[in-house]
Amino acid sequence: MNARAAHRPNANHGELSDAALALVATRFRAMGEPIRLRMLRALERGEQSVSALTEAIGSTQPNISKHLKVLQDVGLVNRRQEGSAAHYSIADPMVFELCDIVCSRLRAQLEEQVEALGRGAGPRRRA
Question: Residue 65's closest CA among 76, 81, 49?
Answer without folding.
Answer: 49
